[in-house]
Design brief:
The complex is a heterodimer of chains A (about 425) and B (about 375).
Chain A: H1 3-8, H2 12-26, H3 33-43, H4 61-74, H5 84-95, H6 98-110, E1 115-118, E2 134-138, E3 141-152, E4 159-165, E5 176-182, E6 188-193, E7 202-213, E8 217-218, H7 224-237, H8 255-268, H9 274-277, H10 284-291, H11 297-325, H12 337-356, H13 372-379, H14 390-401
Parallel strand pairs in A: 1-4
Antiparallel strand pairs in A: 2-3, 3-7, 4-5, 5-8, 6-7
Helix pairs in contact in A: 2-4, 3-6, 5-6, 5-7, 10-12, 11-12
Chain B: H1 7-23, H2 26-33, H3 41-51, H4 69-82, H5 88-102, H6 105-117, E1 122-125, E2 141-145, E3 148-159, E4 166-172, E5 182-188, E6 194-198, E7 208-221, H7 228-263, E8 265-266, E9 269-270, H8 275-303, H9 309-335, H10 346-358, H11 363-373
Parallel strand pairs in B: 1-4
Antiparallel strand pairs in B: 2-3, 3-7, 4-5, 5-7, 6-7, 8-9
Helix pairs in contact in B: 1-4, 4-7, 4-8, 5-6, 5-7, 7-8, 7-9, 7-10, 8-9, 9-10, 9-11
The chains are: A alpha+beta (about 425), B alpha+beta (about 375).
Chain lengths: ~425, ~375
């Protein structure tokens, strides 16, 4: 860091005083949500660590926490940050150009526009770079044909982050490009995808001569995989950076809070069953006592095994966090969480079945806990698939943590056209 | 609970690892396991003069180093990794901890300094041929006799029982039952009426003995009839300690299996390149890391006197025992035929894993103890 820069960096006290003064002059819980966020974004306090020319204040990331704290203190609502918006913002900040930032950032932050991610396809799940959706440049615009799947909230979305193939003759990873696609156009059809547990948290998205203007290409033609990798990295890292977070210190009454609650409810709607897919270990002892299964020595052993696994998983996650907090290089314990969560969920579903007995065959109002146990039993299979299957996790652990040889590839040394693919449909 | 080791603890661990790599390579383990004693006094003396290990968790007031169970756990993890042949678990862990829990102040002052320096090798004789690991399983009797006591009965599975200088014995008042009437005693190894016989053990790196007491004169340790509490506490602490030792051994096996898979070529490629091997190694890493987390949680809970320490110690014992055994089974499998030979070192750890799975109570028993401790 140069001396000038160090000199010019504002102190925490300065930042705190400045944002506090601005909030005192502008915060009003009776404003409309979009109206307030518009003011906030235009002031630069919405995303203070973003560059000054792009709606931010160019403050160091640490100052963001100071600003967030001041907002929480008075219960001020932050910018829209949930879901794919955050991924879109980070991706366009890294790979987008002035046009993209100018066009999309403000409405992204005010929450006027919703975003979705169009990566997975029926033919490419674990192997995202195998995307077959085509984008062809015709008459000055991109024409898109194909199908995406597992798209959360596509039915609410205005824009999609699209990974599509622009060159069948290039090697797999070099034939992809990345676009921002207008979802609300006739060539895009969104259909809900009903899951085995009855919920429809995701969508299938069909493209029939959908169009994107030339400027909606992000990065260069053929560099889509690098751009997508940025999106995926932020997805794995989880929501970071954007968004003020709910203020709990103040009583949240006023028009703006009602609108924010409605927004949150819409965003969270697809995730209602997520606690159940993790297995609900928290219910096991109480259920075992209620049903009397706690007196069965065999069931006791199975409960104890589950609790052992669950506790050890929790402590392993805490070891990883503690090492991170000490600034140490992440040890192997940091890479195991996803796979261990699958083990816990599966074991929990098994134990819930043992505890519940014949009633495990019933669901809805006839099922135990008004169908909640049934929902656990039919939701748990998602855990070992979503966000990287157990098999992919084991590959990652063995290759990246243990340094074992990578899987042999047959798809990286010939034109993608010649690589074996799933039969379309 | 402490979830990360301090820089000093990590440094301590690496010093120990280097020391045991030098002093306890498999060649030394193999030589010592063929002897009846199973260990030698010169190396035992070095353990203390060079590293101060024999009294690592014994308070300074009694001549020890005054560290906690977390540090003791580190020592045991590294000893388990090296499969050290020494009467450490018997003397420094079981006997010293029992004396700390049961003894009077004067008895601690009298007995512990020599154990802390390693001059006296002690052991704890509590289990009996009935194979029970709880206080109620004790049948040996102690009858008052002229200010001292007379012990009758048989103790079994006594670690280093045939070579220890001092035996800490748990026995009950004649006619008492359950946890009532239990007391701790100390007996000199050469006491008249005491017959010691080395048992033929499955794990030759850790010797056990059967001790027959026929009207053996013994000194009371602590309060008469109040032995159940200190015994339960000692066994809880020992379970956490054994879990620490087991995860060290499991980690060593896991690495040896990985090294072998990377080196071994079949069908023109290292077997490590087969996905079945990679996935097995990933699963082994999960098993061992989860068990480590449990063992670290257990020793940390002991140091903090956590209200859940008993449940966590049992959890750790069960978790580490299954991880160690599973890792040993996988390690032999990954080695293939060579893994089943006497010359390959894997069976040394496999046998320690099997013996440790059972010693102090098997996983199913500890799972039950865990649930009971949680009030379920």
């Amino acid at each position: 860091m140069s001396e000038d820069r160090a000199m010019s960096e504002p102190s925490e006290a300065d930042v705190r005083a400045e944002v506090r003064a601005w909030l005192e002059a502008n915060w009003d819980p009776n404003l409309g949500l979009i109206e307030w966020r518009g003011k906030l974004v235009d002031s630069g306090w919405g995303v203070p660590s973003w560059p000054k020319e792009w709606l931010g204040r160019g403050l160091p990331p640490a100052m963001q926490a100071v600003v967030a704290e001041e907002m929480r203190r008075i219960g001020a609502v932050g910018v829209a940050g949930a879901g794919v918006r955050n991924l879109a913002a980070n991706t366009l900040m890294a790979h987008g150009n002035a046009f993209h930032r100018e066009k999309f950032f403000r409405r992204m932050l005010t929450g006027e526009d919703n975003w979705c991610q169009l990566f997975s396809e029926p033919g490419s799940g674990s192997d995202l770079a195998g995307a077959l959706t085509r984008a062809e440049f015709k008459d000055g615009r991109w024409v898109i044909n194909g199908q995406k799947v597992w798209t959360t909230s596509a039915h609410h979305a205005d824009w999609g982050l699209l990974l599509a193939r622009t060159d069948m003759n290039a090697v797999k990873h070099q034939g992809l490009s990345y676009f921002v696609l207008d979802i609300r156009q006739p060539g895009v059809e969104v259909r809900p995808l009903k899951q085995m547990n009855g919920h429809a948290s995701f969508n299938q998205v069909f493209f029939t001569d959908a169009e994107a203007p030339a400027e909606h290409l992000v990065g260069e033609v053929g560099q889509g995989w690098a751009v997508a990798t940025t999106t995926l990295m932020h997805e794995r890292r989880g929501a970071d950076g954007v968004g003020g977070g709910p203020g709990r210190a103040v009583e949240r009454r006023g028009r703006i809070y009602d609108e924010e609650r409605a927004e949150t409810e819409k965003v969270m709607e697809p995730y209602k069953w997520y606690p159940q897919r993790a297995g609900r270990v928290d219910l096991v002892l109480e259920r075992a006592k209620a049903t009397g299964a706690i007196r069965d020595p065999v069931v006791r052993q199975e409960i104890a095994r589950l609790l052992t696994l669950s506790k050890a998983a929790e402590w392993t996650a805490r070891r990883a966090r503690a090492a991170q907090a000490q600034g140490r290089a992440p040890g192997p314990e940091g890479s195991l969480g996803k796979l261990v969560a699958s083990h816990v969920a599966r074991a929990a579903a098994h134990v819930h079945t043992r505890i519940t007995g014949a009633d495990a065959m019933l669901t809805g109002a006839d099922g135990p806990m008004d169908g909640l146990i049934a929902e656990i039993l039919v939701s748990v299979p998602a855990v070992s698939i979503a966000g990287g299957t157990d098999e992919i996790q084991r590959n990652i652990i063995s290759e990246r943590v243990l340094g074992m040889p990578k899987e042999p590839r047959t798809d990286d040394s010939r034109p993608f056209r010649d690589v074996p693919k799933n039969v379309a449909g | 609970m402490q979830f990360a080791f301090t820089a000093e603890q990590e440094e301590f661990r690496s010093v120990l690892r280097r020391y045991f790599e030098e002093t306890s390579p498999p060649g030394v383990v193999r030589r010592l396991m063929e002897t009846e004693a199973g260990w030698e006094r010169a190396a035992w003396r070095d353990l203390n003069t060079q590293l101060g290990l024999t009294g690592v968790h014994i308070p300074e007031a009694y001549g020890g180093q005054g560290f906690g169970f977390v540090e003791l756990g580190i020592v045991l993890e590294e000893m388990g990794r090296a499969l050290l042949c020494a009467p450490y678990f018997s003397s420094s862990v079981l006997a010293a901890t029992a004396i700390l829990n049961a003894g009077t102040e004067a008895q601690k002052q009298a007995l512990l300094p020599a154990i802390a320096t390693g001059e006296t090798i002690a052991t704890l004789a509590f289990a009996e041929p009935n194979g029970r690991w709880d206080a109620s399983g004790i049948e040996a009797t102690a009858t008052p006799a002229g200010g001292r006591y007379r012990l009758d009965g048989v103790k079994s599975f006594v670690l280093d029982g045939h070579t220890a200088d001092l035996i800490v014995v748990v026995a009950r008042a004649p006619g008492s039952q359950g946890e009532a009437g239990l007391s701790f005693f100390t007996v000199a190894a050469d006491a008249p009426g005491l017959t010691r016989r080395a048992l033929k053990v499955l794990d030759p790196t850790r010797k056990q003995a059967r001790l027959e007491f026929q009207a053996v004169e013994a000194d009371l340790l602590g309060e008469a009839g109040a032995g159940a509490g200190p015994l339960v506490k000692t066994l809880m602490q020992a379970a956490a300690c054994l879990a620490s030792e087991m995860v060290g051994g499991a980690e060593r096996l896991r690495r040896s299996a990985l090294d072998y898979a990377n080196m071994r070529v079949q069908f023109g490629r290292p077997i490590a390149s087969f996905q079945s091997m990679k996935h097995k190694q990933a699963d082994m890493l999960v098993d061992v890391e989860l068990a480590k987390s449990a063992a670290y949680a257990a020793t940390s809970a002991l140091d903090e006197n956590d209200p859940e320490q008993a449940a966590i110690a049992s959890l750790a014992k069960a978790c580490a025992a299954e991880a160690y055994m599973q890792t040993a089974i996988h390690t032999i499998q990954i080695h293939g035929g060579i893994g089943f030979t006497w010359d390959n070192d894997t069976h040394l750890w496999f046998k320690r894993a099997k013996s440790s799975e059972v010693f102090l109570g098997d996983p199913a028993w500890h799972r039950e103890q865990m649930l009971k401790a949680w009030g379920a």
